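User: I'm preparing a small set of examples for a lab meeting where we compare how different chains pack in three dimensions. I only have the primary sequence for this one, and I'd like the structure in token form so I can line it up with the others. Please keep the answer compact; I'll paste it straight into my notes.
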Amino acid sequence: MGSTASRISPSMMCVDFRRLEGTVRSLEQAGVEYLHFDMMDGHFVPNFTLGPDFMNCVRDMTAIPFDLHLMMHKPEEHLHLFQLRAGDVVSVHQEATPHLQRTLQAIREYGALASVALNPATPIYTIEHVLDDIDMLLIMTVNPGFAGQKLIPATLRKIRAARAYLDAQGFSHIPIEVDGNVSWDNAVKMREAGADIFVAGTSSIFRKDGDLEQLTREFRTCIA
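Assistant: Understood. Below is the structure token output for the 224-residue chain.
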């Protein structure tokens, strides 16, 4: 059945860095549950974004837990770069490491929550043998690498199938996070399909010239 309360994880990749601290304060006032950091290596995905120094800079500004999405090959080699805390979530791609279970175990040893991310074409059954090792499942609803992409319609069915799969396997407590074109309209469909945590970006709360705090609160109403 998943979590009963929906949660918001604003994408820090979409922040106007000139107004970083003010943005963090607005997100605190809006009561967001996480801050989402996309870490891209230019190899696993064709883009570079953010990094541990940026993340640690934001760490000094807020107590909001971090939601790290490591879009990089062999993420286990880079975990030591992040000042992980209890309550943080770290998502690693099933496709990115030959030692997925070991990587998930290492994340938990750092005190963080472990999550597996699945690209749109990656089957759900690939997580069968690590269900005991994950605290969350991240389903990509676009191909990772760039903001502003359109939702891949088949991923709505995938969210529904993932929720049914987790429930049937006795892991109904594992929440599903969704990332990619999480617009207001799409978020409603994702919620209905079984999503619990929503990565909010340019198609929802980070609208140009919009009031971030107000938009975040309105977005929460639409996914309630």
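A couple of notes for your slides: The beta strands are 7-10, 35-41, 48-49, 66-71, 89-93, 113-118, 136-140, 176-179, 197-200. The CA atoms of residues 161 and 170 lie 14 Å apart.

User: Perfect, thanks.
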